[in-house]
Amino acid sequence: MRKISFKLGLLFFVFVLGIETVLFASLYVTLVNARINEEFEQLLARGNNHRDVLEKSYHPSTLEHVTMMESEAETDVVITNDKGKILYFSDHILPFAKRVIKKSNKNIPYGGMIVQKNWQRESYISTVSPIRIDGKIKGYVYMFQHTASIQNMIDRLKHHFLVVGILSVFLTIMTIAFLSRVITIPLIRMKQATEKLSKGDFSVRLQVKGEDELAQLGKAIQTLAKDLEYLKKERNEFLASISHELRTPLTYVKGYADIARRPTLEEEERAKYLSIIYEEAEHMQKLVKDLFELAKMDQHSFQIEKEPTPLCLFLKKVYVKMYPAFQAKNMSLVYRCDEDITVHIDRQRFEQVMMNLLDNALKYSHQGSTVSIDVRMEKKNVMIMISDEGIGIPEADLPHIFERFYRVDKSRSRTGGGTGLGLAIVKEIVEAHGGSIYATSQFGKGTNMIITLPGGDEGVHGFIG
Q: Boundaries of each Histidine kinase domain copy (predicted)?
């Protein structure tokens, strides 16, 4: 993560430094040009002021006065006649002035103009303002300013920009280092969390705040850790359940097979033990079949074929099949259904659902009690309820009864029968039909299993999962 922090900080620094460089360069050039233009404008304005004075009073005394004023200033002045002959000038400017006057253009506008603006190579900059009296050019006022003052101004600007630039780079580095650290700390924690997950440690707890992308990633990792922890627990319980379910019948099979192999055993006893072995083999076969069905459901390869089915007629056939079993236990099976309800179901798979639920109701109900099948329409859905007057389900166990291998009887007594997979398969099949199933129960009074199926027209093919 240090590499990521360094790379991220370096990337930010390069981009920010590039932006700052462009902005500083643009600001520097703009300021320099603005200040130089101000110097030219001030010099030209000073020349125009002298021109205005001379136009009002063009006398030798006035010319001398203007020249004397500039001799005490930072600027210099040269006054010529209309032919360019120098009449008056301030000290030390004459050699340079002659060269400028010689090269200057005679078509000079009344507002004046810049005649020497190369402040980087020449020692002076210069402007000229024409003196016009009675509509005729009487002469010219040339103003000169030493470029050393401009160079000093530029040097001061460079110094200020250099100091500000160094300070801004330092602050940029500090800010980027802080921000990159703030950004990468959650990533470092997430990396450490994923390393724990890869080692099988699912006790990951990330403190995430906000709703940005990093917070969402942290929440996703947190959710993943919880899901993996749950799956690990489920896997362990699943393997333990399979081991238990297979160990018991295998123990019976092995034990009774050893007894049945004894040559001195009576044939009647041998037949009894072989019958027990057969029953246990059937139990294992049913368990393996249920596991195989659940595996196909998990792999989304368990196809169902839906077809329009008159529900009442379908349930009537199920009622007829199950009625003898209820009669043998001295129990009543009641069937109530409207005659005009049609649903799209896989008849074989849905019969499996109903037989499983009715078998559970038969198994966990008392003699003389009643089990009922009720069907009704509720809005656009079909409700099927299987009710019994049996032992019921404790409230703490009710949310878990559709989990694989979950049994309300924690002792897993084999006298209760079943593999603990029946309701899990029921739930998968019902949901594959686009429906849902849930249970309500009062412990000691009975249980209701409620199936909801979508009504109306729908597709006729589906997959479990």
A: 241-457
CATH for 213-298, options being 3.30.420.150, 1.10.10.10, 1.10.287.130, 3.40.630.10 = 1.10.287.130
DSSP string over 434-461:
T-EEEEEEETTTEEEEEEEEE-S---SE
What CA–CA distance (Å, rounded) separates 388 from 207? 48
pLDDT in tens, 149-191: 888 888 888 888 889 888 988 888 888 778 777 777 777 777 7
Q: Please give the order of strands across the beta sheet that includes 124-133.
A: 86-89, 75-81, 136-146, 124-133, 113-116
> Residues 152, 72: contact at Cβ < 8 Å?
no
Per residue in 85-114, pLDDT tens?
888 888 777 788 888 888 776 688 888 898
Interatomic CA distance for residues 322 and 90, integer angstroms:
130
3-class DSSP state for residue 63?
Answer: helix
Residue with tokens 């009296």: 133
Q: Taking a C-beta distance cutoff of 8 angstroms, is the pair 449, 363 a contact? A: no
Mark the ranges of the chain whose per-residue pLDDT is less than 50: 1, 411-416, 457-465
What's the predicted TM-score (pTM) here?
0.48
Give the right CATH number for 303-463 from 3.40.640.10, 3.40.50.261, 3.40.190.10, 3.30.565.10: 3.30.565.10
Question: Could you count the other beta carbons within 10 Å of the beta carbon of residue 418?
Answer: 19
Q: CA-CA distance, 293 to 289, in Å (whole number)?
A: 6
Select from 3.30.390.10, 2.30.30.140, 1.10.10.200, 3.30.450.20 the CATH code of 2-153.
3.30.450.20
